[in-house]
TrEMBL record:
One of its GO terms (molecular function) is citrate synthase activity. This is citrate synthase (unknown stereospecificity). InterPro entries: Citrate_synth-like_lrg_a-sub, Citrate_synth-like_sm_a-sub, Citrate_synthase, Citrate_synthase_sf. The gene is citZ. One of its GO terms (cellular component) is cytosol. Pathway: Carbohydrate metabolism; tricarboxylic acid cycle. Keywords: Acyltransferase, Transferase. It holds the Pfam family Citrate_synt. Its EC number is 2.3.3.16. One of its GO terms (biological process) is tricarboxylic acid cycle. The keyword Acyltransferase applies. Residues 241-264 are annotated as: Disordered. Belongs to the citrate synthase family. It comes from Corynebacterium comes.
Amino acid sequence: MQKSDWWHTEISDISPGVIRYHGYSVEQLIASEGVSVGSMIWLMTRGEIPTPLQAKLLERAMIAAVDHGPQAPSIAIARMAMTCGVDINNAMASAINVLGDVHGGAGQQLMELVSEIIADGRPVEVVVSEKLREFRARKKHIPGFGHRFHPRDPRRDPLLRLVEQARDAGEIEGKALEVTLEIEKQISAGRTRPIPMNIDGATAVIYSELGFSPMLGRGLFVLSRSIGALAHANEEFQSQMRNKGPENRTVLPNYQGAAPRDVP
């Protein structure tokens, strides 16, 4: 079979009777009990099979972000799309397409911020203080902290405990953890109600510590939330409802336009 450089890749080696990913045969990957779905995500994006602790951290982060109920726009959209008679892939794609800078992008934004702070080289508390002043001056929200629904995101503590364990075991450096804890400390200073990290913050710590780029951090969140979109789209399909909008049919939007008038 002829080879061409029109498309070239270091990821997959495919030819008749052969499937290899970064040199590993699919037969061996299937047979290996040590290769999980998380390991495959790592292999496909990073080129190597992770250590068991690396795979565990990646998988725990992805498990934590799978779903946040129909009040999350991405999940609500997946469910509404399903009632419009589309296939499940369309419903999942609809959910994924709204995971942008506002809904789903905070993790990537925090990873970028953490990377800048680490690269600065000055004491962490000094750089964090400077960055926070910049955010406040621009009246910008600090990504990855606070939650509109949870006083303290229940996913924060178990994820950060795993990060601390990996740091203590020498598997990660702990630099991203140090930076984000300092941010959390400084933005909560003087407040009666602290502003803890949310799921975006906690997963950003893990993905940063594991060496993923900020762009891949967003992609991993999208993969994770796709599972929730799949489950909710499937559940909504069982209802057999049609054209289900964002509000119950008995509720109308509050019209605030012009009063009734005649066409001139």
